[in-house]
Amino acid sequence: MTTHEAPNAPEAPVSRDEMITMVSRAHKGASYAESSLAGKTLAAQSKLPRLIAENLGAGFGQWDFFPEATAIVDFAHAYVPPANEEDVWALARSWASDDAAGRQTLLALVGRDILEHELRRVAVPKLRELFDEPRASRARAIRTELGLATPALAPIKDEAKATKVPTPRTERAPAKAVKQPIPTRMPPPEFKRPAKAAPPPPPKRFQHPKFGEGELLSQAGEGPESKLTIKFERGPVTVQAKYVTEI
Fold it and tell me: Disulfide-capable partner of 96 in 51, 54, 149, 158 (CB 3.0 to 4.6 Å)?
């Protein structure tokens, strides 16, 4: 397995403008080492959960939109971890509001990941239940019960189809049985060729916003936190499953 080592973050803090330049380069096709360095540098100067800060800085996330480098740096520098249950609830309400309204904000983008991390440190059982629930319908119900803003349900496009009552079949007279002629001699046995073995399935392919398309080489674990080693054009890279999209 090929790994890509990146330099460690610089010991001395870099300025806001320098940080914005590093993050901007990472999001615009910099090398893997440069991108990783930008992520590590941002994480070293932020109180965001480390993995989230590194992915934001390096541009390794699989996102619906890519924030501007300035917004990422300012968000990371301004983040203050919740100190108690009340702070966690305030963070959850802000995330839910942006998420339900479809706003393209950093909190809508990574707020859920941040909350899942912070709930390991500050216990809020009711919120933990929401994020642990795998069923979308039940999670939506819990979110509503907790008073958190919830995205509107998509309307049914064709209500006539949704409420259509099947038309009863008309009764038909039973068809008359047709007498089959009796063969004068037994037909020869039919030869059936054995079915060919199905070809092996093609290897899975994934899309990454930075590395492009690649072929799966190996997988460790299950679910969004599993680690996938994917062969991209630049070579094999190991990433978490939640940051790539299967093609």
Answer: 149
